[in-house]
Design goal:
Helices cover 58% and strands 19% of the residues. By secondary structure, the protein is α+β, with helices and mostly antiparallel strands. It has one domain: 2-Layer Sandwich (GMP Synthetase, Chain A, domain 3), CATH 3.30.300. The protein has a 3-stranded mixed β-sheet, with helices on one face. Helix 2 crosses helix 4. The longest helix has 25 residues.
Length: 100
């Protein structure tokens, strides 16, 4: 039997327990709050991140329409840049906005 590095064992345990996903969620949610303007951050809340899709709850239909039509690609780019700059492995492939 070959020796296995402790880092590999820890990584396997973290993935099995879902702990690595929790840190991804935290990084993505924190990133959302850091890349959107304060006025938008106060009216939105990132609630789920799974399979590269970030779900953001929006407080009003007009804001949701603005984000979906005009700001979605901008925030997607900014969010992924934030994650790369903070050495996080998470990648957001799309953002879905939903009404609260």
């Amino acid at each position: 039997m070959d020796a296995v590095p402790i880092s590999e064992i820890v990584s396997r345990v973290m993935q099995k327990q879902g702990w690595s996903r929790m840190s991804e969620h935290r990084a993505v949610f924190e990133g959302w709050q850091n890349v959107v303007p304060k006025t938008i951050g106060q009216r939105t809340r990132a609630v789920s991140f799974r399979g590269g899709k970030l779900i953001v709850i929006v407080e009003s239909a007009p804001l949701m329409q603005e984000l979906y039509c005009f700001r979605q690609s901008e925030f997607l780019t900014l969010l992924n840049q934030y994650l790369v700059n903070n050495s996080d492995n998470a990648v957001v492939q799309r953002i879905e906005f939903r009404r609260s």
